[in-house]
């Protein structure tokens, strides 16, 4: 569904010079004079219908990586292909179209509009696209039921618990009915019990709707529970990519092994 080919993202004054040096084997720490290397030489394929987890500590480059998968950020070098469409070096119009029809994103802090009702929040993306009110309403109603928020349509986000707010965030991403969902620490702000419930429902929903999901987390248990495959990031690099079983039984290095020791 998504193919990332040798992507780099360097923030700073001379990103291309930093990439050149990194590609020639320089250490990340040695290019700080040119910029911050957030993602270094990442290549992977996300398969249709899988939950692909990106796991790593804070600052390892996860958010930067996922933002390159829908064109919110352009790689400094390398290319990204989404469902057959090249999204690197293309116009903003093409990117808007990709975000409208191919990839939706769910954020950690919900990013709901506080003065709009649940249903209007869920329908917001459709409104931006100029879809008529009646159709918007019908589609939003369907996804609201899907995420278990029936009866809450006319409430404001502030009247909802954190878990319910994140359901609204999920509804808003589902309403566009894209094949791919990108989720950046989507459950990290939730209480453990609600969080587990959301994880279970996400797996269920993914099976039923056949979505492809890229899910970011810094939590190994969450990664193990959700992931069909897990990419482990450290300091901007993917240091291991495999099934949860691969990662538990055969950690690629001490860093992954250390991570794995903490699994419940
Ligand atoms: P994660 O999501 O794993 O916590 P991020 O992708 O947010 O990691 O950040 C990776 C690195 O890139 C960090 O060192 C961060 O400070 C840096 N970074 C992220 N975004 C920017 C930006 N817009 N400008 C400069 N540096 C950034
Ligand atoms: Mg992040």
Automatic annotation (TrEMBL):
<dbReference type="GO" id="GO:0006970">
    <property type="term" value="P:response to osmotic stress"/>
</dbReference>
<dbReference type="GO" id="GO:0016020">
    <property type="term" value="C:membrane"/>
</dbReference>
<comment type="similarity">
    <text>Belongs to the ABC transporter superfamily.</text>
</comment>
<dbReference type="GO" id="GO:0005524">
    <property type="term" value="F:ATP binding"/>
</dbReference>
<feature type="domain" description="ABC transporter">
    <location>
        <begin position="2"/>
        <end position="260"/>
    </location>
</feature>
<keyword id="KW-0029">Amino-acid transport</keyword>
<keyword id="KW-0547">Nucleotide-binding</keyword>
<keyword id="KW-0813">Transport</keyword>
<keyword id="KW-0067">ATP-binding</keyword>
<dbReference type="GO" id="GO:0016887">
    <property type="term" value="F:ATP hydrolysis activity"/>
</dbReference>
<protein>
    <submittedName>
        <fullName>Glycine betaine/L-proline ABC transporter ATP-binding protein</fullName>
    </submittedName>
</protein>
<dbReference type="GO" id="GO:0031460">
    <property type="term" value="P:glycine betaine transport"/>
</dbReference>
<keyword id="KW-0129">CBS domain</keyword>
<dbReference type="GO" id="GO:0006865">
    <property type="term" value="P:amino acid transport"/>
</dbReference>
